[in-house]
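User:
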Amino acid sequence: MNTQLKDIRDTADIKLLIDSFYAKATTDAEIGYIFTEVAKVDFVHHLPVMYGFWSFLLLGTPGAYQGNPIQKHLDLHQKHPLKAAHFDRWVALFSASVDALFSGPTAENAKFRAFSIAETWKYKFDTLF
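Assistant: Predicted structure:
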């Protein structure tokens, strides 16, 4: 843990983290095409949703997120099968984004939450669906 970095404290920090992550993810050789070519993510709409999702998870911001992330990913899975390796890469990029910018309990929680999501979803998508 890098003690010279600050912890995730507010929505500005969430925005910085999510923007950093998507800059990595959309250009990544392993999963970038899923965002840009398969899902064709509309980032003007998607990023504020992700800010709300992570703000709710990490800061407990009431009402920050309203949605069904599993359904969105099931719809995407119908277009292009999502495999365990995709989720492993996603969590690696997310964790790298956290580590590059933040250090502290909330930063560690962000990585844990991403890992937990990836582990749950990769089993479901790679095995059940």
